[in-house]
Design goal:
The protein is mainly α and 274 residues long. Helix content is 60%, strand content 1%. It has 10 helices and 2 strands. The chain has a two-stranded antiparallel ribbon with strand order 1-2. A hairpin with an 8-residue loop joins strand 1 (260-261) and strand 2 (270-271). Helix 6 (128-152) packs antiparallel against helix 7. The longest helix has 26 residues, at 9-34. The two termini are 25 Å apart.
């Protein structure tokens, strides 16, 4: 995509901005399904969904809410992403060999499989008769244990102790099993779905930063021989090797306070945050 970025920067920018919005919406819609929040007024944080064209937004709303359609929104978005990639490949925005590009479709397919497995966990609950039987047996155990312990142990303090511990432990295991049965949701012990969405959004935002097109190259003072490199291996953190004049002084800062670095093929500034 680098050579195409120089020739058609607007087409590459449109592709990236469309892709990150669709991926964020796809990930958020998938979490809505497994977190059972599809009917809530507010969903997970999305990357500027208003940045998509109105025709796409209308279809994404109708595919779920229109009773005549009743499509799965995640499947619709995945199809949109696949169509976007195919169109970008055909128009030359993506200059990637088809065998390598096919990994994109394999990754999307694997994501759908993982989503289907999570939905199985949501829809396949603990059998109701077995849950009722467990609750009844716990009550019977809690009622009969004190009589048995008082008959076996003469000391009343030890009888209370050996009665409370197994009863409390059995009920605790039952409550833990109930939490593990449904790991998706908003309870304190559930998986942090909002953190997953935020992490996904941050990963997608990386694609539209100028640094994403920065081509790394060796410095003028880099060591070239095997023996020199082996003798100068370091354990210092990366910021110890940053030129302070470069980072703080001689280079002019951009509007967001970062320092432009040269080397971007598109001619745009690259910023460094070590």
């Amino acid at each position: 995509m680098t050579s195409r970025l120089v020739k058609e920067p607007q087409a590459v920018s449109d592709f990236r901005h469309t892709l990150i919005r669709l991926m964020s919406l796809c990930h958020g819609s998938a979490l809505d399904e497994i977190g059972q929040r599809t009917d809530d007024e507010e969903g997970y944080v999305l990357l500027d969904p208003a940045g998509l064209d109105q025709a796409s937004l209308v279809y994404l709303v109708r595919c779920k809410d229109d009773s005549r359609l009743g499509f799965n929104r995640v499947e619709v978005i995945v199809h949109m992403i696949q169509t976007l990639v195919v169109q970008a490949q055909a128009s030359g925005v993506l200059e990637i060999p088809p065998p390598i590009l096919s990994r994109v479709f394999q990754t999307l397919s694997r994501g759908q499989v993982n989503l289907a497995n999570c939905k199985k966990m949501v829809s396949t609950l603990y059998p109701f008769p077995l849950a009722q039987l467990t609750a009844v047996l716990l009550i019977v155990f809690a009622v009969l244990t004190p009589f048995h312990m008082s008959a076996v142990i003469l000391n009343r303090y030890w009888a209370c102790t050996f009665t409370a511990i197994p009863i409390a432990g059995s009920f605790a295991l039952n409550y833990i099993a109930r939490e593990l049965e449904m790991p998706f949701g908003n309870d304190p012990n559930d998986l942090p779905l909002e953190d997953f969405q935020n992490h996904m959004n941050r990963s997608l935002l990386m694609l539209i930063r100028d640094e994403s097109d920065h081509i790394c190259k060796p410095s003028e003072t880099c060591l070239r021989s095997y023996d020199e490199i082996k003798a100068n291996m370091k354990t210092d953190r990366l910021y110890h090797f940053v030129d302070r004049q470069w980072y703080h002084g001689k280079r002019s800062r951009s509007k967001d306070g970062t320092i432009p670095l040269p080397g971007l093929l598109s001619g745009e500034a690259v910023v460094s945050r070590v």
